[in-house]
Design a protein that fits this description.
Elements: H1 9-28, H2 33-51, H3 56-63, H4 71-78, E1 79-84, E2 97-104, E3 107-114, H5 120-126, H6 133-148, E4 153-159, H7 166-170, H8 173-186, E5 191-200, H9 201-205, E6 212-216, E7 220-222, H10 226-233, H11 240-247, H12 251-256, E8 262-264, H13 275-296, H14 298-310
Helix pairs in contact: 1-2, 3-11, 4-13, 6-8, 10-11
Length: 319
């Protein structure tokens, strides 16, 4: 069963009426092509109007759509010879964060990213894309491997945030994230991170210290989820839409604030409407940025990454 968001319902209703007319046309042999064409034009115009002025909260809903392509979809669509690597070499593995090696356009690369599930069973297995410390330690192990063998690193970000459970805190969640941020800053190979859905808090930043950070049009990137922010500021998670406006979490906002380097357009209606097109667009962007980073050379990548984050943000001097 397809999932329909509230703001999509008027479009769905028109498509339902079109389907009814087509069925009536076939059953009774009447010509309803003029009426069908008129409704199709109305549906197309309505879709353009709705998706041309989405609110931050509506984009947040799209970023969480369970039919969006996930990390494994990008790996399957863009890479060959993928070999998943498990474990943090300290006794644990984490299914919420996938890591491995592959070939991208014939070139050896390291790939990693958060993985959600499309049903309850998969989400429990993947912990809803919320990694524990062992997930980030596993990712760091693969990053060091890539650095040693001079392989570019691709990171796909899609998480509400790092898992906040007691067991994760006991095993050093904050330390694991901080260690990743520190060690990623030192890498001497190209690092490209793509926000493909939710980019939530330190859970996202732990694989987001990259030379280039790219966002899909309907993804979000924030220090906290809108509901979490609303619960703190207004003590009411229902104020999530209000918080989404204040947080500046959309791709357009992040591009304006120089948090990301490029926004990739999604198919009309969202990435879930045409996953193959979305995967291809991401692949083209990644290939283009990788080619640019190759021009910098291994010795300059670390400094370029440092400069990127050093000059991020702006402030007003009150003096």
């Amino acid at each position: 069963m397809d999932i329909v968001l509230d703001f999509e319902r008027p479009i769905l209703e028109l498509h339902r009426r079109i389907a009814q007319l087509r069925s009536l046309e076939g059953d009774q042999g009447v010509n309803l092509s003029a009426s069908i064409e008129q409704l199709e034009q109305q549906a197309a115009k309505l879709q353009v109007r709705i998706f041309g002025r989405l609110t931050p909260w509506q984009r947040t809903q799209l970023s969480r759509h369970p039919r969006r392509p996930y990390t494994l979809d990008y790996i399957d669509g863009l890479c060959t010879e993928f070999v998943e690597l498990h474990g943090d070499r300290a006794g644990h593995d984490d299914h919420a964060l996938i890591t491995g090696t592959a070939r991208f356009n014939g070139r050896p690369v390291a790939v990693m990213g958060h993985q959600k599930g499309r049903n309850t069973k998969e989400n429990i297995h993947r912990n809803f894309g919320m990694a524990r410390p062992e997930g980030y330690r596993k990712a760091l192990r693969i990053m060091h491997l890539a650095d040693r063998f001079k392989m570019p690193i691709f990171c796909f970000i899609d998480t509400p945030g790092a898992y906040p459970g007691i067991d994760a805190e006991e095993r050093g969640q904050a330390e694991a994230i901080a260690k990743n941020i520190l060690e990623m800053a030192k890498l001497r190979v190209p690092v490209i991170s793509v926000v493909i859905g939710e980019g939530g808090s330190g859970g996202a930043l732990a694989i987001g210290v990259a030379n280039r950070v790219i966002m899909l049009e309907n993804s979000v990137y924030s220090v906290i989820s809108p509901e979490g922010c609303a619960a703190i500021l207004w003590r009411d998670r229902a104020e999530g839409p209000r918080a989404a406006e204040a947080l500046r979490i959309t791709a357009a906002d992040c591009l304006e604030l120089n948090v990301v380097d490029e926004v990739i357009a999604e198919p009309q209606g969202g990435a879930h409407r045409s996953p193959e097109t979305t995967v291809q667009a991401v692949g083209e962007a990644v290939a283009r940025h990788l080619e640019e980073l190759d021009e910098i050379g291994l010795d300059g990548l670390r400094q370029a990454r440092y400069e990127r984050f050093r000059h991020m943000g702006s402030f007003l001097d009150g003096a």
